């Protein structure tokens, strides 16, 4: 797998996954005291075959363990406190993926319904060579207390997960929310 440095120039570290394969793990990918239930979320997802395959894909980069420590401002308490237990959200890892340059195998589902993405991007589809289309991914280990009905994820939590994933995108791009809607 190709290794990448983050914008701060952190050196990648090797992380062994099940089966002896190696995945590059950026030094910043696991903040000290990240406050997730599972002590090493990256190792946890590397032990699951289908998520390990995603993380080991050469198109994946900037793999990071989400920092779920409580904020001094009290912001994001719902995610960082209420939904942070052995029976709710146990682990979360996020990463970026470059768009595939080859069409999916026959019978494989398309990666998106977006015609621009499916056609491979490019200037004709609104992609800027300086800012190529990327996919942002979040792997989340969910517990049984998040079910509306036994074995069925509560629909409201689906919206929360989408909202928090979008916040993670913003955080990873260094965007800052001022909270000042009205002035």
Verbal overview:
- About 25% of the residues lie in helices and about 20% in strands.
- The protein is an alpha+beta fold.
- It has a three-stranded antiparallel beta sheet, sandwiched between helices.
- The protein has one domain (about 10-170).
- This is Thioesterase domain-containing protein.
- It comes from Thermothielavioides terrestris (strain ATCC 38088 / NRRL 8126) (Thielavia terrestris).
Topology (SSEs and partners):
Blueprint: E1 12-16, E2 22-26, H1 41-46, H2 49-56, E3 60-65, H3 77-82, E4 89-98, H4 115-118, E5 134-142, E6 147-149, E7 152-153, H5 155-172
Antiparallel strand pairs: 1-2, 3-4, 4-5, 6-7
Q: Number of DSSP helices?
A: 5
Q: Main beta sheet, described?
A: 3 strands, antiparallel
Overall tally of structural domains: 1
The percentage helix is 10-25%
| Order of the strands making up the biggest sheet | 3-4-5
Q: Which stretches of 5+ consecutive residues score pLDDT under 50? A: 1-22
The helix/strand order is EEHHEHEHEEEH
| Arithmetic mean of pLDDT | 75
User: How far is the first residue's CA from the last residue's CA?
Assistant: 47 Å
Beta-strand percentage?
15-25%
Total beta strand runs:
7
User: Structural class from helices and strands?
Assistant: alpha+beta
- Measured on Cα atoms, how large is the radius of gyration? 18 Å
Could you say which overall geometry the principal axes of the C-alpha atoms support? globular
Can you give me a brief rundown of this structure?
Residues 1-13 have a biased composition (Basic and acidic residues). By secondary structure, the chain is an alpha+beta fold. 23% of the residues lie in helices and 22% in strands.
């Amino acid at each position: 797998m190709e290794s990448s440095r983050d914008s701060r120039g952190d050196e990648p570290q090797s992380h062994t996954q099940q089966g002896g394969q190696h995945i590059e793990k950026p030094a910043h990918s696991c903040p000290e005291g990240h406050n997730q239930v599972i002590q090493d979320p990256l190792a946890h997802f590397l032990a699951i075959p289908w998520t390990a395959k995603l993380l080991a894909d050469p198109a994946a980069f900037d793999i990071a363990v989400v920092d779920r420590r409580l904020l001094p401002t009290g912001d994001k308490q719902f995610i960082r406190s209420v939904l942070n237990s052995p029976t709710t959200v146990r682990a979360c890892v996020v990463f970026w993926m470059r768009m595939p340059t080859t069409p999916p195998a026959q019978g494989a589902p398309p990666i998106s319904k977006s015609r621009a993405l499916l056609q491979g991007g490019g200037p004709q589809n609104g992609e800027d060579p300086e800012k190529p289309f990327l996919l942002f991914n979040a792997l989340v280990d969910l517990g049984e207390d998040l079910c509306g009905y036994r074995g069925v994820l509560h629909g409201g939590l689906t919206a929360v997960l989408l909202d928090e994933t979008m916040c993670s995108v913003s955080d990873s791009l260094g965007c800052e929310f001022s909270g000042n809607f009205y002035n």
